[in-house]
Amino acid sequence: MKEYTFKYQNNSGLLYLLLVLIGIPFGLIFLTVWLMEYVQWIFWPNIVLMLSLMVFGVWRFVKKSKAIDTITLDKEGFTSLSYGRVLYKDIHSIPPYGPLQAPPPSMRIKLNNGKKLVWLFNPDHPQSAVEAITFAAFREELLHHLEQQALAPQGGNPGENTATSLVSQIEESKKRDYRYIAIPISAVFALVMLFRTCGADFIKQQRDKETAGFRDAILDMEKTYETNVLKAKDVAAVYGLTFGPVFLWTNDPRATVVFRPDIPRDPYGAEINVIGLRHAEDNKLLEQYIQHPDSVNYDLTIVNTAEKFYAVMNKSIFSREDSLTVPIYLTVYNPKESLPSPFSQKVVDSTFRPIRYSTSIAIPRAGEPKSEILDHMDFASVRSILKKYRGTYFYMVAKEQDGISAQQFEKIKILVLKNFEEHKVDTEQFESRRCNSE
Q1: What percent of the chain shows pLDDT beyond 70?
Q2: Which residues share a beta bridge with 93?
Q3: Tens of pLDDT, residues 39-65
Q4: Which domain holds residue 332?
Q5: Less Cβ crowding at N or C end of the chain, within 10 Å?
Q6: Does residue 256 fall inside a structural domain?
Q7: 3 state SS for 376-406
Q8: Which has the minimum average pLDDT: 79-88, 238-247, 341-350?
Q9: What radius of gyration do the chain's Cα atoms show?
Q10: Alpha helices of 152-254 — where are they, by DSSP H?
Q11: Angle between helices 159-174 and 126-151 (to 10 degrees)
């Protein structure tokens, strides 16, 4: 019986090696790059921590991996100080290591019960060269015994094929001749410095890209809003024609009457004053309106684009729903004058509020209109403002949809004109128009 004693490395410390080569460097590099945005001085303390952990990992790897084995071979098998008694017939395979796994003459044996025997060497190290030669001699002796097992008659025992396979596996393992591939520690430091010098610039570039993308999205939202407004105006202009003609009598030479869509907003939605974001909900409502213009109500509205003035024409607060009458809408507007504050108001408000007042009078649906329709407080209020404040615009509007024809509107206009003349209201600039028609 021959005996072989040698020092070797096992795979018990493999976890520490992986931590030293991959886990600790990449983990702390990522942590350092992230923390430097908040703590500028964290780089060098983290480098010291990384080196300390790597030194500790190397020490644990060396301590856990070192071992001494004494192997004695005989005709039936071999006895190992590290792994115990092993019979040749219990060996399942001896798979050779790949180029990136372990250098020669490292070897592993897999038993039928699943147990693995591992001997690792680094022949490039001066202290390991002698141990590698001793282990190579053990491997040659093991090969000799397995060849004897393969040549011996087995009486149909399948162990013959197994021994032959083991011999070929050891022969293949002996043919390996390459250097062990390792990552030098200098490469790790070079990687750290690369992240130190380029990491900040990379993060800044990424943030600039994100900022530019956010800015472009905001500007795109603003452009979309402007486009939607123009589309909505075109849709409203076309759909408003379905309500029929509107008759206007006014002293405002640039005024017209349109049906303006009343697009409701979410009363519980937050007001966002950031440019672009504030139109996110508006775009959604406008797009819904453009697709379904009949889904909202429309207000009869006086518009003067030059004066940037518009006013929704409302019925009088004293009016009642009556199938026998129809409304005539009245509005006055003076951009340069303001109504006096009530005497009961204790707090003085210096804010200028131009005169803007809308109301209506009711006329009978059937029969000729009479002057009695003007004996109403709402009409008197409008007339009083028009007479007292020079430069006041007056608007009288009626809808053909309510059943008022052009002839009826002309008769009402004559009654109002006569009333104004009696109360010395200047009517020289007044003219009639037909609006909301092709």
Answers
A1: 83
A2: 110
A3: 777 777 878 888 888 888 788 777 777
A4: 244-262+299-435
A5: C
A6: yes
A7: CHHHHHHHHHHHHCCCCEEEEEEEHHHCCCH
A8: 341-350
A9: 49
A10: 159-174, 185-240
A11: 150
